[in-house]
Amino acid sequence: MLDGFWIRNYRTLKQVGIGACFPQFSYIDDWAAVLPYELGAATLFAGANGTGKSTVADAFSFVSDCFYHGVDFACQKRGGYSAVYTHGSTGAMSFGFLYQYEDESDPVTYAVSIACTAEKIPYIESELLAYRRGKESVPVFFLQNGIKTIRYLAPDERITNAELTKIEFTDFKHLGLQALESHPKYPVLAAVRKLFNDWVPCDFTPDPARGLDVSLPRKHESQRGTNLSGLVKYLVNRYGSSLNGLLERITNSLPDVNEIILDVSQSERPRLSFKMYGQETLIPITLMSAADIRLFTYCLLLEEDEPAPLVFLEEPANGLDRLHKYAMFQQIGRVMDFPKNRQMFATVHQLDVIDAVHPSNVWLFEKDENGHTSVERASDSMPSSEHGGEALSPHWFSDRYNPHG
To answer: SS in 3 state form for the chain?
Structure first.
């Protein structure tokens, strides 16, 4: 899972660090304070509209686009480098990720900085991927890319190039990470690539998701819900009849649903129907309520046996009544208690949703007087007596931050 990440000079995110930020390596130029804690399996981003919560998701999408298509495409998709660069700032646009791989003692560091020429043509200024494996005294250094000489620090000693095993690239338009092949000796490479290849941003709207029979199989749900059909077909192709076990687990999370029935008699068009409590007639998914479709999709993403490494949900409780929202609380709790190599970020406005999560898993977003985003962990601004054990109020967020309270 991600222990933490930082983003610099991307839209309103002039300098934002969330979770643990590079305790092993730091760009000197891009240095941010090292935070003493790691992100958990579920993290909520709270704050007013326009404070930068969704911008974090877009920053992940930007790096993913760089991974797939290169920096030119990622910038042009968003209107060009100037459109996404923080107004009035200096230095390169930078992204850094601290990734914990299974039982490795130290996390992986991956960072990339993207600058532009006077003609506003973007290029990779620097890129690195490194980690200290096992009990080795110096890091295994996988990757170095970019036109700028990378400067780096270890906790207690300066590491010289002679001590590093490195792979250098000179293509300053495409990430070196994308070009690295998986290596049996270094399974961590595949894990880091999977993070950017398989993460799922889900800004879900129910209506396009109702067309269940219109798309080809795809591993994960697309951003706006248009690929729910593809996700179901992928699961049918992968798991076959064993998919019924997954659907049975999901049934327990849907308040009004007694049974989910999968019809694969026509393999090209698997159909889902729902049997509601007190009704004999089966209801096809195309006629289900928006709340049921929304919750069903989230459960598919979070309960799948081989889930996406990171699922980023935009306002998951929107349109949910009390019962469906409670089911969402339970789903978040399951992710926290049984992460299974899955991780969830979610932007939220509803006070009761935030109340249901411990303040150490909530990050508060605000804008300063210059229009830049500032972020702090909710528990850091609270006296220890307010969030320690039984002293934590069940309405800790509503009581403290509700402007109308």
So the answer is: CEEEEEEEEECCEEEEEEECCCCCCCCCCCCCCCCCCCCCCEEEEEECCCCCHHHHHHHHHHHHHHHHHCHHHHHHCCCCHHHHECCCCCCCEEEEEEECCCCCCCCEEEEEEEEECCCCCEEEEEEEEEECCCCCCCCEEEEEECCCCCCCCCCCCCCCHHHCCCEECCCCCCCHHHHCCCECCEHHHHHHHHHHHHCEEECCCHHHHCCCCCCCCCCCCCCCCCCHHHHHHHHHHHHHHHHHHHHHHHHCCCCCEEEEEEECCCCCCCEEEEEECCCCCCEEHHHCCHHHHHHHHHHHHHHCCCCCCCEEEECCCCCCCHHHHHHHHHHHHHHHHCCCCCCEEEEECCHHHHHCCCHHHEEEEEECCCCCEEEEEHHHHCCHHHCCHHHCCCCHHHHHHCCCC
